[in-house]
Amino acid sequence: MARENLMKGTTSQEDQWMVQNQCFRLYDIVYRLPPHAQSIKFEVLRENHIEYLTESLKQLGRNFCVLDANRPWLCYWIIQSIALLGDCVDDKLENGFIDFLSRCQDQDGGYGGGPGQMPHLATTYAAVNALITVGGQNSLSSINREKLYDFLLRMKVASGGFRMHDGGEVDVRACYTAISVASVLNILDDRLIQNVGDYIVSCQTYEGGIAGEPFSEAHGGHTFCGLAAMVLINEADRLNLPGLLNWVVFRQGIEGGFQGRTNKLVDGCYSFWQGAVAAIIQRLHVTVNKQLGLPDTFELGCSTESGNESSDNDGEEVSEGSSSPADISEPTKGESVSTSAAMGLNNGYDFIKRPTGMKPLFNSMALQQYILLCTQEEAGFRDKPGKRRDHYHTCYVLSGLSVCQHCNERDADSPPLSRDVMGPYSNMVEPVHPLHNIVLDKYYEAQMFFARA
């Protein structure tokens, strides 16, 4: 009996084998096709996805009633996906979108899950990111930054962390959403930053990843939140980055996609949560080298297009805590970024302007294959074969696809080479800011707008 059970495997092992078989069957079918038929299978069905998303923005079915407290998230997932695909909505939809999120904004600051609902850090993050993604004067000016700052300060706790809402839980998600919102709105200051790093450091586990709270299990979403927040407050060097790097690279499974935790199934959404962690670490190469005891000029596997290894600025050392004049220049000519940049608090813009110092830390082509063949439906994206499409996975799978396509570029504003895009070059999606998951040109627009506000 014991031998029979051993041969049968545990439930989790059986689930893993089933997912592997489903993925490999899809790969086998596609790679047996003639080259022309193969190329069709590797196309991003852009128009289908845009139609699905646009129709969803107009009206959702009755089964979405259970997500009543998550409506800003639905707005963000849908509008972010449309932006990643290089499109936008018409003026009527845009105005309705702005009006709805304005009604979700609490009179004392922050955004609730719907009009009249309690303000919550998660839905505040979603609403702010969505409004930035829409862009334009009407959208950006609808955010009451003064009241929102008061809300963030009310959520701050003595440990250095933040509560998700009044009387709510304290965790790494709350730290990230508060810091991300404050950074992108140009309201981040020392009062909000105080002791945040202490709390996040206490959440890094023996595995190297970051848990939601101290003494819990490392998780992909929480690792992204913790690392991104630490970069935004300029304290990433306090984390064990080699340990974190080691943890994240082993989360890419045999199917090509990422798992969220050790010994869990692959899931399409971790294409971003784990992929972005790897993309962030690529720009932290100086700190990684220092923690590994390597010289600052040593590049961990970084190469130029020709394949010759070289240091970042033709041999000049670049500190991650500082920038050259070119690094902190305005996205468009003639304007300064913000006063907070000079104070060292605008680390999101400083960070994205750094050149990458490592090759991609994961197999980006294997992940693109998983995305295109295993998560893409005729319209929308899903978790894995056998699951149904949804807006959450559509957003984070497309965000992960963006990370894959752009992770080989030394500069964030450079387009990827055709060799870095699986399938036709028309598959390319817009680049995202890996710390905020906002399309890059919309992030730049917000930086200019809130620098003047």
Would you summarize the structure shown here?
The chain has 453 residues and is an all-alpha fold. It has helices spanning 2-8, 11-31, 35-41, 46-58, 71-84, 91-104, 121-134, 137-141, 145-155, 172-184, 190-193, 196-201, 220-232, 241-249, 270-282, 285-292, 339-342, 347-352, 364-375, 391-406, 440-452; strands at residues 432-433, 438-439. It has a two-stranded antiparallel ribbon with strand order 1-2.
Describe this structure in words.
With 453 residues, the protein is mainly α. 49% of the residues lie in helices and 1% in strands. The protein has 21 helices and two strands. A two-stranded antiparallel sheet has the order 1-2. Strand 1 and strand 2 form a beta hairpin. Helix 5 runs parallel beside helix 20 and helix 19 packs antiparallel against helix 20. It is globular and about 60 Å long. About 9% of the residues have low confidence.
Show the helix and strand layout:
Layout: H1 2-8, H2 11-31, H3 35-41, H4 46-58, H5 71-84, H6 91-104, H7 121-134, H8 137-141, H9 145-155, H10 172-184, H11 190-193, H12 196-201, H13 220-232, H14 241-249, H15 270-282, H16 285-292, H17 339-342, H18 347-352, H19 364-375, H20 391-406, E1 432-433, E2 438-439, H21 440-452
Antiparallel strand pairs: 1-2
